[in-house]
Design a protein that fits this description.
102 strands; five-stranded mixed β-sheet; mainly beta; 1430 residues; 13% helix; 41% strand; elongated
Length: 1430
């Protein structure tokens, strides 16, 4: 305020000077200037202000310059107004200017004098006011705020001297140091007292008071703070929601949702876990995909159970990809989490085929057509996409019908020929040169209908909600011949088709309309109907296969049952075949670090108003050529987080625009980026501990931040606070690089607390919570102080390595050891795990329970006793983290032994810290360290036993522990030294040693195979100490790229016996390999070579390609077969058995197949069988030895097949008894048989006879009795296996068989005793006249039969010349002096009670000298000639 008054005074003075200058004329009037004190008087307030300014500041230099410039300007203006001048005027002006300067100086001095006087007066006035007790000029006032808001309680106090201020909450003093950091801020500025409370909660509702006091008195002010909680429509302490909130705490989201990777046709599930059971008002959980609310369906199930909300998709499609959000209601609104679900393409049936399209949708649905659109897949496969095939089916069926014959180039297609009112589904397949993709997800069902139907219906309401529908068609019944359509135009023009649209005629008439479309080339008057075979029912039509580049006009005719309309007006010219161009790719694609497994991509959206369907993102690892698809569903935003990357790997990215025309070209690749966390400010340090204390100093230690921000911690800023003071004080100005610091200049006996913050490249991190209060008292106890910096490394499933630092205070003596205590998290019981004190500051802790969480502490020991324990370590879970790497022990290409460790999670500032035996870095004279990328290698310069021990490595500046160790033992070192020697003195590796192959023509191939050799490799082949060179008879082949060495010997003979050595050299690597070919080995090869040589020569003529072999057929016949080739017409085939030609064989010259069938094999068939083919080119034979063992094998097979052919046992009654038998194809004695009755083996005896024939095996039971009843079993042994056949001879079967046996027996007896003519009578007998005929025969029968003779069926009366003589069984008839009358048919008839029989003979009597024609004479006793016909 004082400054503005002074400036105003100066401006008034300048204004007066300007007026004075403007009033000057050519005649200058002299004027005496006075000082400011003489001209003006100032008020007391003005003098006070001027004095204060004079005492506090000087006049600014720029103000002086501005003042002088203004004066000069006024003088120049004055000169412009004077048309003449003289020296007196100039002198006058200089005098005026000097007077003004003198006046300014005088003003300064006057003001300074008055300011001194004013300050003296003010000082006296202040002294008079001192000693006043506090008084609240403005007291505190009450406040009511919402939860999480800030509030400031303020009041104004007057007091002298300044009072001491104390704030209270419900009568309890407020100490900002004991409250959460930043909760309270207390200020006292010029008597204005403020208490700032941040993020108010319900606990902050209380009565607040402030107390001010000084030596003259005290004063108090009170105010109430009410914090309200918002509960939606209901708020206040009387609401039901508030009462419920007091009973239970709301559940929170326990873990963040992580990205999910799934695949088409496979299920996936998203799960969200809560910290506790959801309250009743929280259970209305909602899920969203890309902002769209999801509901339960056949494929999608939403569940909540046991503090878990899950979303399960039973069969994933690429349409299911996107951002998934879960939203849980809360009293404050809602809580939500979002993640991205990736759905990758299923494996195509054809390798290299593209991915399937997605988002198939239907547009512009009409009665018989619609427009189908889809989105191109992200994966083109092994070649660009040529087009798409569309299929349709009636909803509810799986009968998919193709809609197009040729691939569609763009992602939009008109589908024609649909049925009105039918519901359809569509799907699309992509095709490239390699094949066709899997089909897309079917579209939503769509029903064809007339979209103009609703426009042609008028609804008239009446009578309380009733309506009358009036159809415009009914009002247009007078229309017969329809009017032509109007507004014919091309609605879509694509490379594959042109889609036409038009308006229906108005009025259209009552009858249904159809349309015919006509086309004409621009400039021609010839119109051609294009849909004569398929009338169109909708005002839409698509034309395909138009000539590219030509312009067409189109017109349409309406048709109903009455006729066809005139054509419509032609459309505007339409040029077919214009290719739809793809959109340009996005620009400015940038990649930023995000987490250790993800990267954030950003890009500029397309310009010029271009709107793509979305973007596809691709990535590849640096050094590879294959691009990987990130998303399979286009994203519409221009920022995306790519998860699932490998930590520490380097990637590049590109983006493609997606449009109806397909995918754009790839955007420019991003700069390579290593997957590492983004750099951020570190979190707060923690774990402050007092390590040493003197009289006026303290040594403080603390633990590093849990989150280092992805880079190195540059240092720490430490603050201290005396408990008796209000303010915190900085301890250091420059960052402290270590975590131990001595704070000096402290007051002995005072309590101090400390806090710190870390700083990295991103800035200063959070301030830690204040430490405990530490008293500044010198330590004099004899026990040591606490160890510090207890940490765990090399954490695995059941073990870890514990490290700590030795105490800074050793007490009465040196540290003699340490004890380690363990405590499981959640327990307060500490267990000492060291039986004896350990001397080192590290220890391996073993036998931990996998998955359990542990805390450790360490206590130091000296001669005085055990010191206090260290600060507990951070909790650690005994579990090997996925992806944990171990130290690799090996030998490099140059033969150096190394230990390598890879840490993909390291950041740019991380370092690998190697240690030996945990005592510090290895000796630099013995090791060398190399670091490349994420890998560090420790190389042993001169490996020896001095290098044995435990080597460990740890990665710095990372949030999680990355460490490992390995033990180099004597055994390991020996193996590595051996491997190192092999590398430094390499040998050519042998893959396959010397091999010997005898080729088809009898050539011998000696070869070996080694590892792949360079083109400079050399070979020396030594045979019996002489170097071999390649010749036609000894050809040497050396294939270096395959490592093949071979020697081919044409005519292998005795001269080739000896030692073969191959000497190889390839750079430093060399080796030699020796083959000793002598004695039995050589003889065997020579024999095989000679045999193959002969065989090859033999194969130049007819020869056998299938040797002679035998086979037993199902009919138990033995078939010998062989097969020959290279036959001619004159080729002869022979069968030879036991050096004799064998007839009966067969040979087919066409097929070369020879066969010999032995129907019944017997012992006589044992021998050598041979088949021979021959012609003038040579001969060949094949031989089969069927003797001894071979013949026995044949019999075994014959018996096996015969046994398998055995029929079930049959029962056959006979006259002797009952016969049990089985029939076989062929029986031989080699087949062993045994009969069993009731499990007891039977032997042949009087009543049991066992036997066999060529085709039957039987058991004959003679004179059967009841004892023969039971089960009979036949065992057939074929030489290898026993076959059993059984039958049951009992019950009715036995009775029937016995009865039949008796019947047959009786019949046999009758047949035996029956009268019969046994022998003697010829068929024909001739006799000469006058001779005596004597016919004799034998008869039998019991009783003896009656005998009767007949001549020509008449009984002969024996008298005169006819006589009969019976002597026992011999009956003789004699005819004396036969004559021609005796010629005839004679018969003897015998008969008894069992039967009769007749014997016949024809007698022919001829004259002397005649021999009957056609007969032979046979002399018989008595001179009779018996004649029989020929």
């Amino acid at each position: 305020m004082g400054t503005r008054s002074l400036f105003h005074h100066r401006e008034e003075e300048q204004k007066e000077e300007r007026q004075h200058s403007l009033q000057m004329t050519s005649t200058t009037r002299k004027k005496k200037f006075k000082t400011s004190e003489e001209e003006e008087t100032f008020s007391l307030s003005e003098l006070s202000i001027a004095a204060a300014l004079a005492l506090t500041s000087e006049i600014p230099q720029d103000y002086k310059l501005r003042r002088e410039a203004a004066i000069l300007e006024l003088e120049q203006r004055g000169q412009k107004r004077i048309l003449f001048g003289n020296d007196m005027e100039e002198l006058e002006e200089r005098v005026i200017r000097n007077c003004r300067l003198l006046r300014v100086r005088a003003d300064k001095r006057a003001l300074r004098r008055k300011a001194v006087e004013k300050s003296r007066v003010e000082k006296e006035y202040i002294e008079l006011r001192s000693g006043r007790p506090p008084m609240f000029w403005i007291p505190l006032r009450a406040h009511a705020v919402w939860e999480r808001m800030e509030v400031t309680l303020a009041c104004t106090v007057l007091a002298s001297p300044p009072p001491q201020v104390t704030w209270y909450k419900n009568g309890v003093r407020i100490d900002p140091r004991q409250a959460p950091a930043g909760k309270y801020r207390i200020k006292n500025q010029f008597g204005m007292l403020t208490l700032h409370i941040s993020r108010c909660s319900m606990e902050d509702s209380a009565e607040y008071s402030v107390e001010v006091k000084n030596q003259y008195g005290e004063a108090y002010s009170y105010a109430t703070l009410l914090v309200r909680k918002y509960y939606g429509k209901e708020s206040g302490f009387d609401s039901e929601i508030y009462r419920r909130s007091l009973l239970a705490k709301e559940a929170d989201l326990a873990f963040p949702l992580k990205p999910l990777f799934s695949r088409e046709k496979e299920p996936f599930s998203l799960s969200c876990y809560f910290s506790s059971d959801l309250l009743e008002h929280q259970r209305d959980i909602t899920w969203f995909r890309d902002g769209e609310l999801l509901q339960n369906s056949e494929r999608l199930q939403l569940k909540y159970q046991d503090q878990e909300a899950s979303l399960t998709v039973s069969c994933a499609y690429k349409e299911d990809e996107g951002f998934y959000t879960i939203r849980v209601p809360s009293l404050d609104g809602y809580k939500e989490q979002t993640t991205y679900v990736f759905v990758r393409d299923a494996a195509a049936e054809t390798a290299g085929a593209p991915g399937c399209p997605l988002n198939v949708k239907c547009h512009d649905v009409n009665k018989d057509c619609l427009i189908l659109s889809w989105v191109a897949p992200s994966d083109n496969g092994a070649s660009p996409i040529l087009g798409y095939y569309i299929e349709r089916c009636v909803a509810g069926s799986e009968d998919w019908v193709p809609c197009n014959d040729k691939p569609v180039k763009t992602c939009r297609y008109p589908v024609l020929g649909l049925a009105e009112g039918q519901t359809y589904q569509f799907r699309v397949k992509a095709v490239n040169k390699e094949g066709i993709s899997n089909p897309s997800k079917p579209s939503d069902p769509v029903t064809t209908y007339d979209p103009s139907k609703d426009e042609r219906v008028t609804v008239i309401p009446y009578d309380e909600g009733r309506t009358i529908e009036v159809f415009k068609d009914d009002l247009e019944g007078h229309i017969r011949i329809p009017l032509p359509p109007t507004n014919v135009h091309a609605s879509e023009v694509r490379e594959d088709y042109v889609s036409l649209a038009w308006d229906e005629p108005d009025p259209r008439g009552k009858e249904p309309l159809h349309y015919y479309v006509e086309k004409s080339i621009e400039g021609s008057n010839s119109w051609q109907m294009v849909n004569l075979d398929m009338p169109v029912n909708s005002p839409r039509f698509a034309l395909f296969d138009l000539a590219k580049g030509k312009s067409y006009r189109f017109r349409v005719r309406s048709v109903n049952k009455y006729g066809i309309s005139e054509p419509s007006l032609p459309s505007e010219p339409v040029t077919a075949g214009a290719k739809l161009a793809t959109l340009p790719p996005p620009s400015q694609v940038l990649a930023f670090r995000d987490t250790k497994t993800s990267v954030v991509l950003q890009w500029d959206k397309l310009k010029d108003g271009l709107e793509p369907l979305g973007y596809y993102i691709y990535c590849r690892e640096t050094g590879t050529e294959e691009w990987q698809t990130v998303n399979n569903k286009p994203v519409t935003c221009n920022e995306f987080t790519v998860p699932g990357l490998q930590p520490g790997k380097e990637y590049v990215f590109c983006v493609k625009s997606v449009s109806e025309a397909g995918l754009s070209e790839s955007s420019p690749e991003t700069d390579p980026i290593v997957v590492r966390p983004a750099i951020a400010c570190p979190s707060a340090p923690h774990g402050f501990v007092l390590l040493h204390c003197g009289k006026t100093n303290m040594t403080i230690g603390w633990k590093p931040p849990k989150r280092k921000g992805g880079t190195r911690i540059l240092g720490y800023f430490l603050d201290q606070h005396d408990a008796s003071e209000l303010d915190w004080h900085e301890v250091n100005i420059q960052p402290i690089p270590q975590r131990v610091y001595m704070v000096s200049s402290l007051e002995e006996g005072h309590l101090y607390e400390f806090r710190a913050c870390a700083v990295n490249l991103a800035g200063v991190g959070q301030v830690s919570e204040p430490s405990d209060l530490f008293r500044c008292e010198e330590w004099t106890m004899p026990e040591p102080g606490p160890p510090y910096d207890v940490k765990c490394t090399e954490v695995r499933d059941s073990s870890l390595r514990l490290h700590w630092e030795a105490p800074l205070y050793s007490g009465a003596g040196p540290i003699t050891g340490y004890h380690v205590d363990l405590c499981e998290e959640g327990s307060e019981e500490w267990k000492q795990i060291t039986k004896q004190a350990i001397a080192t500051t590290h220890m391996k802790v073993s036998d931990l329970e996998p998955g359990n969480c542990y805390i450790f502490r360490v206590r130091a020991l000296n001669k005085a006793g055990m010191g206090p324990p260290s600060l507990p370590s951070d909790p650690v879970v005994a579990k090997t983290k996925p992806g944990t790497n171990e130290i690799e022990l090996g030998v490099d290409e140059e033969g150096f032994i190394y230990m390598a460790f890879e840490a993909p999670e390291k950041n740019d500032s991380s370092e690998f810290i190697w240690s030996k035996d945990y005592e510090g870095p290895p000796d630099a004279d013995r090791v060398q360290t190399e670091e490349k990328g994420n890998k560090s290698k420790l190389i042993l310069k001169d490996p020896s036993e001095k290098d044995l021990g435990i080597y460990s490595v740890e990665v710095t500046d990372v949030d999680d522990d990355i460490s490992a160790s390995c033990t180099l033992t004597k055994e390991d070192l020996d193996k590595l030294l051996k491997r190192s020697h092999e590398i430094r003195n390499p040998l050519i590796k042998l893959i396959s040693g010397w091999n010997i192959d005898v080729l088809e023509k009898g050539e011998v191939r000696l070869w070996l195979e080694v590892e792949k050799l360079s083109p400079d490799a050399k070979l020396q082949l030594i045979f019996n100490d002489k170097e071999l060179t390649s010749t036609p008879t000894h050809k040497i082949n050396f294939v270096k790229e395959k490592g093949l060495v071979e020697l081919i010997i044409q005519d292998f003979c005795h001269d080739d016996k000896g030692t073969y050595t191959a000497q190889l050299q390839d750079g430093k690597a060399k080796n030699q390999f020796t083959l000793v070919l002598v004695d039995e080995c050589f003889a065997k090869v020579e024999e095989e070579a000679d045999a193959k040589r002969r065989k090859w020569k033999k194969q130049q003529g007819p020869h056998f390609i299938e040797d002679l072999k035998w086979k037993v057929t199902e009919n138990c016949e033995v078939l010998l077969t062989c097969k020959a080739t290279n036959l001619r017409k004159d080729t002869i085939f022979q069968w030879i058995f036991s050096k004799k030609d064998l007839a009966g064989g067969a040979f087919d010259p066409q097929t070369g197949l020879g066969t010999l069938l032995i129907k019944k094999l017997t012992k006589a068939d044992e021998g050598q069988y041979k088949a021979l083919v021959s012609d003038d080119r040579g001969e060949d034979y094949t031989q089969l030895d069927l003797t001894k063992g071979a013949f026995e094998d044949l019999l075994k097979e014959l018996c096996r097949i015969s046994a398998l052919s055995a029929t079930p046992l049959k029962i056959q009654p006979t006259e002797e008894g009952i016969k049990i038998y089985t029939e076989v194809k062929y029986y031989t004695d080699y087949m062993k048989t045994a009969w069993y009755h009731k499990e007891k083996q039977l032997e042949s005896r009087d009543r049991l006879k066992a036997g066999s024939t060529m085709d039957q095996i039987w058991l004959h039971i003679l004179n059967p009795t009841d004892a023969d009843k039971g089960k009979y079993t036949l065992e057939l042994f074929d030489g290898n296996k026993t076959h059993k056949l059984s039958t049951d001879l009992s019950g009715q079967a036995f009775e029937d068989a016995l009865a039949e046996h008796r019947r047959l027996k009786e019949r046999a007896i009758a047949e035996k005793c029956r009268a019969r003519v046994v022998q003697g009578l010829p068929d024909v007998a001739t006799i000469m006249e006058d001779k005596t005929l004597c016919l004799t025969c034998c008869v039998s029968g019991e009783p003896y039969p009656e005998i009767t003779w007949f001549k020509n069926e008449k009984v002969i009366v024996f008298k005169d010349r006819y006589k009969m003589d019976v002597k026992g069984t011999v009956v003789t008839i004699t005819i004396e002096k036969v004559c021609n009358e005796d010629t005839g048919k004679y018969s003897i008839f015998v008969k008894n009670k069992y039967g009769s029989e007749t014997g016949q003979v024809t007698i022919s009597v001829y004259k002397h000298g005649e021999i009957p024609i056609g007969t032979e004479e046979e002399e018989v006793p008595g001179g009779i000639k018996m004649k029989k016909p020929k």
